[in-house]
Amino acid sequence: MTRPIRVELSAVLVGLAGAGRETTPYVLTQPGPDLPTRAFDPDEHRTLELSLRDWVEGTTGLRLGFVEQLYTFGDSAREARIAARAAHTVSIGYLAIVSMQAERKPGSDWRPWGQFFPWEDRRDGIPQMLEDDLLPRLRKVNRGASFQDRVRLAFGLDGYPWRDELVLERYELLYGAGLVAEHFTDRGADIPEELPAFGRALPVDHRRILATGIGRLRAKLKYRPVLFELMADTFTLGDLQDAAEAVTGQSLHKQNFRRMITKSGLIEPTGSLSQRHAGRPAAEYRFAREAEWDRRLATVRFGGARR
Protein backbone atom coordinates (compact mmCIF):
# COMPACT_ATOMS: atom_id res chain seq x y z
CA MET A 1 0.00 0.00 0.00
CA THR A 2 1.40 3.40 -0.98
CA ARG A 3 1.92 5.82 1.88
CA PRO A 4 0.16 9.18 1.56
CA ILE A 5 2.28 12.28 1.06
CA ARG A 6 2.19 15.31 3.36
CA VAL A 7 3.39 18.53 1.72
CA GLU A 8 5.22 21.17 3.77
CA LEU A 9 6.62 24.58 2.90
CA SER A 10 10.06 25.38 4.33
CA ALA A 11 11.19 28.98 4.02
CA VAL A 12 14.69 30.41 3.80
CA LEU A 13 13.86 34.01 4.77
CA VAL A 14 16.87 36.29 4.30
CA GLY A 15 17.37 39.82 5.57
CA LEU A 16 20.33 42.15 6.18
CA ALA A 17 21.14 44.10 9.31
CA GLY A 18 24.10 46.10 10.58
CA ALA A 19 26.32 48.66 8.88
CA GLY A 20 29.77 48.77 7.34
CA ARG A 21 31.86 45.66 7.91
CA GLU A 22 29.25 44.55 10.46
CA THR A 23 26.60 44.14 7.75
CA THR A 24 25.31 40.62 8.32
CA PRO A 25 22.91 38.31 6.46
CA TYR A 26 20.27 36.85 8.77
CA VAL A 27 17.81 33.99 8.36
CA LEU A 28 14.59 33.51 10.29
CA THR A 29 14.37 30.42 12.48
CA GLN A 30 11.79 28.83 14.72
CA PRO A 31 12.47 27.53 18.24
CA GLY A 32 14.93 24.69 18.06
CA PRO A 33 16.26 26.33 15.93
CA ASP A 34 14.57 25.18 12.77
CA LEU A 35 13.60 26.74 9.46
CA PRO A 36 10.05 28.14 9.41
CA THR A 37 7.92 25.29 8.15
CA ARG A 38 4.19 24.73 7.79
CA ALA A 39 1.90 22.25 6.10
CA PHE A 40 0.31 23.28 2.82
CA ASP A 41 -3.49 23.30 2.88
CA PRO A 42 -4.94 23.43 -0.67
CA ASP A 43 -8.36 24.26 0.77
CA GLU A 44 -6.95 27.44 2.31
CA HIS A 45 -4.72 28.74 -0.48
CA ARG A 46 -4.86 28.42 -4.25
CA THR A 47 -1.06 28.24 -4.74
CA LEU A 48 2.01 27.30 -2.74
CA GLU A 49 3.49 30.80 -3.00
CA LEU A 50 0.28 32.48 -1.80
CA SER A 51 0.31 30.14 1.17
CA LEU A 52 3.92 31.06 1.93
CA ARG A 53 3.32 34.80 1.65
CA ASP A 54 0.19 34.75 3.79
CA TRP A 55 1.80 32.60 6.45
CA VAL A 56 4.99 34.69 6.71
CA GLU A 57 3.11 37.99 6.81
CA GLY A 58 0.75 36.70 9.48
CA THR A 59 3.48 35.30 11.74
CA THR A 60 6.24 37.91 11.33
CA GLY A 61 4.42 41.05 10.19
CA LEU A 62 6.80 41.24 7.22
CA ARG A 63 5.69 41.47 3.61
CA LEU A 64 7.81 39.36 1.28
CA GLY A 65 9.50 40.87 -1.74
CA PHE A 66 11.41 38.46 -3.96
CA VAL A 67 10.22 34.83 -3.65
CA GLU A 68 11.54 31.82 -5.55
CA GLN A 69 10.93 28.11 -5.22
CA LEU A 70 14.16 26.22 -4.54
CA TYR A 71 13.73 22.48 -4.66
CA THR A 72 11.59 19.63 -3.39
CA PHE A 73 13.16 17.72 -0.50
CA GLY A 74 11.62 14.31 -0.07
CA ASP A 75 14.31 11.67 0.51
CA SER A 76 13.15 8.82 2.70
CA ALA A 77 16.19 9.35 4.95
CA ARG A 78 14.92 12.80 6.00
CA GLU A 79 12.59 11.10 8.52
CA ALA A 80 15.00 8.46 9.77
CA ARG A 81 14.83 9.75 13.36
CA ILE A 82 11.15 10.58 13.34
CA ALA A 83 8.64 8.08 14.63
CA ALA A 84 6.72 6.15 11.99
CA ARG A 85 3.98 8.25 10.45
CA ALA A 86 0.99 7.51 8.33
CA ALA A 87 2.30 9.97 5.74
CA HIS A 88 5.72 10.67 4.27
CA THR A 89 6.61 14.36 4.43
CA VAL A 90 7.84 16.20 1.37
CA SER A 91 9.16 19.71 1.94
CA ILE A 92 9.13 22.35 -0.80
CA GLY A 93 11.87 24.88 -0.11
CA TYR A 94 11.50 28.58 -0.85
CA LEU A 95 13.94 31.47 -0.86
CA ALA A 96 12.38 34.78 0.16
CA ILE A 97 13.86 38.22 0.83
CA VAL A 98 12.57 40.58 3.49
CA SER A 99 13.53 44.07 4.59
CA MET A 100 14.70 43.98 8.18
CA GLN A 101 14.16 47.74 8.38
CA ALA A 102 10.43 47.06 8.52
CA GLU A 103 8.67 46.62 11.84
CA ARG A 104 8.60 42.97 12.90
CA LYS A 105 6.35 41.15 15.33
CA PRO A 106 7.95 40.30 18.70
CA GLY A 107 9.44 36.84 18.99
CA SER A 108 11.01 36.66 15.54
CA ASP A 109 14.23 34.67 15.91
CA TRP A 110 16.73 35.97 13.34
CA ARG A 111 20.16 34.32 13.31
CA PRO A 112 23.28 35.18 11.28
CA TRP A 113 23.62 32.56 8.58
CA GLY A 114 27.29 32.35 9.54
CA GLN A 115 26.20 30.35 12.61
CA PHE A 116 25.31 27.51 10.28
CA PHE A 117 28.10 27.94 7.69
CA PRO A 118 31.07 29.67 9.40
CA TRP A 119 33.40 28.78 6.51
CA GLU A 120 31.40 30.85 4.01
CA ASP A 121 32.52 34.38 5.02
CA ARG A 122 35.86 35.23 3.43
CA ARG A 123 35.65 39.03 3.63
CA ASP A 124 38.64 39.05 5.96
CA GLY A 125 40.44 36.19 4.26
CA ILE A 126 40.20 32.43 4.68
CA PRO A 127 38.52 31.62 8.02
CA GLN A 128 41.01 30.18 10.51
CA MET A 129 38.82 27.20 11.38
CA LEU A 130 38.67 26.28 7.69
CA GLU A 131 42.45 26.41 7.20
CA ASP A 132 43.49 24.89 10.54
CA ASP A 133 40.87 22.23 11.16
CA LEU A 134 38.21 21.60 8.55
CA LEU A 135 40.32 21.39 5.38
CA PRO A 136 42.99 19.12 6.93
CA ARG A 137 40.23 16.71 7.93
CA LEU A 138 38.74 16.79 4.45
CA ARG A 139 42.13 16.11 2.84
CA LYS A 140 42.49 12.98 4.99
CA VAL A 141 39.24 11.47 3.75
CA ASN A 142 40.16 8.36 1.77
CA ARG A 143 37.43 8.18 -0.87
CA GLY A 144 39.49 8.26 -3.99
CA ALA A 145 40.79 10.96 -6.29
CA SER A 146 37.34 12.07 -7.42
CA PHE A 147 36.38 13.06 -3.86
CA GLN A 148 39.52 15.13 -3.42
CA ASP A 149 38.93 16.74 -6.82
CA ARG A 150 35.48 17.81 -5.58
CA VAL A 151 37.08 19.23 -2.41
CA ARG A 152 39.57 21.29 -4.43
CA LEU A 153 36.87 22.57 -6.75
CA ALA A 154 34.31 23.40 -4.04
CA PHE A 155 36.75 25.05 -1.63
CA GLY A 156 38.92 26.83 -4.21
CA LEU A 157 42.15 24.93 -3.53
CA ASP A 158 45.28 24.28 -5.58
CA GLY A 159 44.61 27.00 -8.16
CA TYR A 160 40.84 26.61 -8.38
CA PRO A 161 38.89 29.83 -7.77
CA TRP A 162 36.58 30.17 -4.78
CA ARG A 163 33.02 30.10 -6.12
CA ASP A 164 30.70 31.65 -3.57
CA GLU A 165 27.55 29.99 -4.96
CA LEU A 166 28.79 26.42 -4.20
CA VAL A 167 27.37 26.52 -0.66
CA LEU A 168 25.43 23.28 -1.00
CA GLU A 169 28.33 21.46 -2.64
CA ARG A 170 30.62 22.36 0.27
CA TYR A 171 28.04 21.27 2.84
CA GLU A 172 27.44 17.96 1.01
CA LEU A 173 31.18 17.22 1.07
CA LEU A 174 31.28 17.77 4.82
CA TYR A 175 28.14 15.69 5.24
CA GLY A 176 29.53 12.81 3.19
CA ALA A 177 32.81 12.92 5.09
CA GLY A 178 31.06 12.71 8.46
CA LEU A 179 32.19 16.19 9.53
CA VAL A 180 28.76 17.61 10.40
CA ALA A 181 26.36 16.42 13.06
CA GLU A 182 23.55 15.65 10.60
CA HIS A 183 25.64 12.83 9.07
CA PHE A 184 25.08 10.94 12.32
CA THR A 185 21.66 12.12 13.45
CA ASP A 186 20.18 11.24 10.05
CA ARG A 187 21.29 7.67 10.70
CA GLY A 188 20.00 7.58 14.26
CA ALA A 189 23.58 7.48 15.58
CA ASP A 190 25.22 9.47 18.36
CA ILE A 191 27.40 12.42 17.40
CA PRO A 192 31.07 11.56 18.20
CA GLU A 193 32.29 13.55 21.19
CA GLU A 194 35.53 14.42 19.40
CA LEU A 195 33.74 15.97 16.40
CA PRO A 196 34.12 19.79 16.41
CA ALA A 197 30.95 21.80 15.89
CA PHE A 198 31.45 22.82 12.26
CA GLY A 199 28.47 25.15 12.17
CA ARG A 200 25.19 24.89 14.01
CA ALA A 201 23.18 21.82 13.07
CA LEU A 202 19.53 21.96 12.05
CA PRO A 203 16.88 19.25 12.35
CA VAL A 204 16.04 16.88 9.51
CA ASP A 205 17.56 18.28 6.28
CA HIS A 206 17.00 21.95 7.01
CA ARG A 207 20.68 22.90 6.86
CA ARG A 208 20.70 21.41 3.36
CA ILE A 209 17.66 23.54 2.48
CA LEU A 210 19.37 26.61 3.94
CA ALA A 211 22.56 25.90 1.94
CA THR A 212 20.46 25.61 -1.20
CA GLY A 213 18.83 28.98 -0.48
CA ILE A 214 22.11 30.81 0.18
CA GLY A 215 23.71 29.32 -2.91
CA ARG A 216 20.70 30.31 -5.03
CA LEU A 217 20.78 33.89 -3.73
CA ARG A 218 24.50 34.23 -4.43
CA ALA A 219 24.10 32.80 -7.90
CA LYS A 220 21.15 35.11 -8.55
CA LEU A 221 23.31 38.17 -7.85
CA LYS A 222 25.40 37.32 -10.89
CA TYR A 223 22.58 37.91 -13.33
CA ARG A 224 19.69 39.63 -11.49
CA PRO A 225 19.88 42.69 -9.20
CA VAL A 226 17.99 41.07 -6.31
CA LEU A 227 20.39 42.83 -3.93
CA PHE A 228 18.12 45.88 -4.07
CA GLU A 229 15.37 43.84 -2.42
CA LEU A 230 17.55 43.72 0.71
CA MET A 231 18.18 47.45 0.85
CA ALA A 232 16.34 50.31 2.51
CA ASP A 233 14.52 52.78 0.26
CA THR A 234 17.62 55.01 0.16
CA PHE A 235 21.25 53.96 0.50
CA THR A 236 24.79 55.06 -0.21
CA LEU A 237 27.11 53.30 -2.61
CA GLY A 238 29.04 52.18 0.45
CA ASP A 239 25.87 50.63 1.91
CA LEU A 240 25.28 48.78 -1.34
CA GLN A 241 28.83 47.45 -1.47
CA ASP A 242 28.65 46.36 2.18
CA ALA A 243 25.46 44.44 1.37
CA ALA A 244 26.98 42.78 -1.69
CA GLU A 245 30.06 41.74 0.28
CA ALA A 246 27.97 40.39 3.16
CA VAL A 247 25.84 38.23 0.88
CA THR A 248 28.67 36.93 -1.31
CA GLY A 249 31.10 36.58 1.60
CA GLN A 250 33.83 38.25 -0.46
CA SER A 251 35.53 41.64 -0.59
CA LEU A 252 34.89 43.75 -3.68
CA HIS A 253 37.10 46.35 -5.33
CA LYS A 254 35.65 49.72 -4.35
CA GLN A 255 36.28 51.68 -7.56
CA ASN A 256 35.26 48.81 -9.84
CA PHE A 257 32.08 48.22 -7.87
CA ARG A 258 31.05 51.87 -7.97
CA ARG A 259 31.81 52.16 -11.67
CA MET A 260 29.78 49.04 -12.42
CA ILE A 261 26.75 50.02 -10.34
CA THR A 262 26.57 53.64 -11.49
CA LYS A 263 26.72 52.56 -15.14
CA SER A 264 23.99 49.94 -14.66
CA GLY A 265 21.16 52.48 -14.88
CA LEU A 266 19.47 50.85 -11.89
CA ILE A 267 20.06 53.62 -9.36
CA GLU A 268 19.58 57.37 -9.26
CA PRO A 269 20.77 60.04 -6.77
CA THR A 270 18.18 61.42 -4.37
CA GLY A 271 19.96 64.77 -4.08
CA SER A 272 20.46 64.23 -0.34
CA LEU A 273 23.52 63.38 1.72
CA SER A 274 23.56 60.59 4.27
CA GLN A 275 24.56 61.38 7.85
CA ARG A 276 24.14 57.80 9.09
CA HIS A 277 27.84 56.97 9.28
CA ALA A 278 30.91 58.64 10.72
CA GLY A 279 33.09 60.66 8.38
CA ARG A 280 32.15 62.79 5.42
CA PRO A 281 28.48 62.75 4.35
CA ALA A 282 27.89 60.46 1.37
CA ALA A 283 25.48 60.88 -1.52
CA GLU A 284 22.26 58.93 -1.16
CA TYR A 285 20.75 56.85 -3.95
CA ARG A 286 17.54 54.99 -4.56
CA PHE A 287 16.42 52.41 -7.05
CA ALA A 288 15.57 54.18 -10.32
CA ARG A 289 11.81 54.21 -10.77
CA GLU A 290 12.03 54.03 -14.55
CA ALA A 291 14.12 50.86 -14.18
CA GLU A 292 11.39 48.88 -12.41
CA TRP A 293 11.23 46.35 -15.22
CA ASP A 294 15.02 46.21 -15.46
CA ARG A 295 15.09 45.43 -11.76
CA ARG A 296 13.84 42.00 -12.68
CA LEU A 297 15.83 41.55 -15.87
CA ALA A 298 19.04 43.59 -15.81
CA THR A 299 22.44 42.03 -15.28
CA VAL A 300 24.73 43.27 -12.52
CA ARG A 301 28.00 41.35 -12.57
CA PHE A 302 29.57 41.57 -9.13
CA GLY A 303 32.30 39.21 -10.28
CA GLY A 304 34.00 42.02 -12.14
CA ALA A 305 34.38 43.97 -8.91
CA ARG A 306 36.07 41.23 -6.90
CA ARG A 307 39.52 41.79 -5.55
Automatic annotation (TrEMBL):
It holds the Pfam family WHD_NrtR. Residues 228-287 form the NrtR DNA-binding winged helix domain. Coiled coil: none annotated. InterPro entries: NMN_biosyn, NUDIX_hydrolase-like_dom_sf, WH-like_DNA-bd_sf, WH_DNA-bd_sf, WHD_NrtR. This is NrtR DNA-binding winged helix domain-containing protein. It comes from Rubricella aquisinus.
